[in-house]
Amino acid sequence: MSINRFRSQLFFALLTWCFLGFSQQLTPDLAENNGMSSERLSNIDNVFTNYIDDQKLPGSVILVARNGKIVYHKSFGLRDMENKIPMTNDKIFRIASQTKALVSVGIMMLQEDGKLLLSDSLATYIPEFKNTKVAVSKGKKGYRVVKAKRPIRIRDLLTHTAGVGYGFGPAASQWKKADLQGWYFAHKEESILESVRDMAKLPMDAHPGESFVYGYNTDILGAVIEVVSGKSLDVFLKERILDPIGMVDTHFYLPNEKVSRLSVVYNQKNNKLVRADDKGEEESQGHYVVGPRKSFSGGAGLLSTSDDYARFLQMLLNGGVYNGNRILSRKSVELMIADHLGGDYYKDVTFPWDWGTGFGLGFSITNNLGDRGVLGSVGEYGWGGAYHSSYFVNPEEKLFVVYFTQVVPITLDDHQKLKALVYQAIVD
User: Is the model more confident about 6 or about 264?
Assistant: First the structure.
């Protein structure tokens, strides 16, 4: 065989491999074909069936994927306890703060478009943030308001270091008066950009870049996307992320034909599950079906299915591409899943909730396995939602998990147990 013919065949072989690899969609496969044990994964069945039987959870869906293959996908319990409607894998859940990951990706896409930089001042796009104030606590004597030491930057919002909380900081009374407390926006008759402009007038919880403050950061980023793209956030996400990777059941507000698939929200009261009311507040059934449909909350507004969210996570695990559609460059994904806290840029800023954990551009990041003290790997990233859903992605193991349920508030060890049950099933 001539060297030119060999090169030609090699070129077409590589081209075919790349096409097949980039076009591959998540499909079911045996756990044993992907370095996991079906028998050991069945421990998940036992534990989550017990949660249901003990009425600690109403229902849940769990999806585990490795090497681009779904090795476990099961549902437990009921979508609707009162009407005894079973939970199934196609049910739709309020994913709350799991919305943040998609909006963070949207910001990275705009940087790749050349329309913004992470180092840009927020005021470049929303001028109301030009003169940000900070409420400094004086203990029992209240607080004083001072000028922020520096402007809020886009990167600060991605890392939750902008000093923007959920309205419960030192100046909570002002945030309450402005009707800006908590993560719920579905009831509002105004756009998210209007709400964000109102936030700019209020004292923040900390100076930008000085501490991790979880709050409206990603809602503000959603407003930035609307300003920069010239499109409402729902349209931008649909056109740039949801449609290209086939997330057909992910919405801010549910289409009428899908209402029967929406999981019911429950509250945990006196160790019992009680159906949440219909008032439309954070811990209720909400306005996701009959609301004004005017506010698209980038921080906590989406509804989705386990299949849809799995596509999104596989895209990240693939380095930004899914089913032949490139959403992000590999380098953008690498920056997102790097730990940004505690270095020279965010000096002395630590993640306050878990040992051995930092934060990237939209996700928590495991940076010290021994300090964290749970099964996993350095570089694992993930987050969760207020309705008790969660996900995690492990690039080293080429693995991710989607876990959806609908209980708020709740105290339960299911997230920790699920992680242990998944990792103990790895046998390669």
Answer: 264
